[in-house]
């Protein structure tokens, strides 16, 4: 195992947090690629606004994934962020490839954002229970961003 750059956490806690970070990293990679799939294929009224929003959302997802990956390495682990790892480990459903309508993309993305947010909130609790306040705080930051982007995306749905 690589060198750890933290003190005050026992090996068992560090290993648990590394696994937790990598599990949620897989979801973030999967969600980022789903957002880009929608970005590339979305069509319909309001296209440009949704197209541009999804690019911004993908950037924020990559930032969250980067935080998780770096924290796993800081704790003495490896970041497991390849598309192959994400594909085999994500808890999110595969994103449909043939979808085009804005309303269909919005519904599919909103569902995935809500699921990812739920899993990250569970990770907040797990990190808190393990006594790793820094990882807990990282997940809290990611959770707020996921919730905000779920709102941005979901607000494009017809009333």
UniProtKB/TrEMBL annotation:
Domain of life (superkingdom): Bacteria
A GO molecular-function annotation: oxidoreductase activity, acting on metal ions
Transmembrane segments: none
PROSITE patterns in the cross-refs: DPS_1
Domain Ferritin/DPS: 18-154
Pfam families: Ferritin
Gene3D superfamilies: 1.20.1260.10
Family: Belongs to the Dps family.
Name under which the protein is recorded: Starvation-inducible DNA-binding protein
């Amino acid at each position: 195992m690589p060198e750890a750059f933290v003190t005050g956490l026992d090996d068992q806690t560090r290993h648990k947090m590394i696994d937790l970070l990598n599990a949620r990293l897989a979801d973030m990679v999967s969600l980022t690629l789903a957002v880009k799939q929608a970005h590339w294929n979305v069509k319909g009224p309001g296209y440009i606004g949704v197209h541009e929003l999804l690019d911004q959302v993908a950037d924020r997802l990559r930032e969250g994934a980067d935080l998780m990956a770096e924290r796993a390495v800081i704790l003495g682990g490896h970041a497991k962020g390849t598309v192959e790892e994400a594909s085999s480990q994500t808890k999110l459903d595969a994103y449909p490839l043939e979808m085009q309508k804005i309303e269909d993309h919005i519904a599919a993305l909103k569902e995935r954002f809500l699921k990812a947010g739920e899993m990250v909130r569970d990770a907040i609790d797990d990190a808190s229970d393990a006594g790793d306040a820094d990882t807990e705080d990282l997940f809290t930051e990611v959770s707020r961003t996921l919730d905000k982007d779920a709102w941005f995306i979901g607000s494009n749905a017809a009333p």
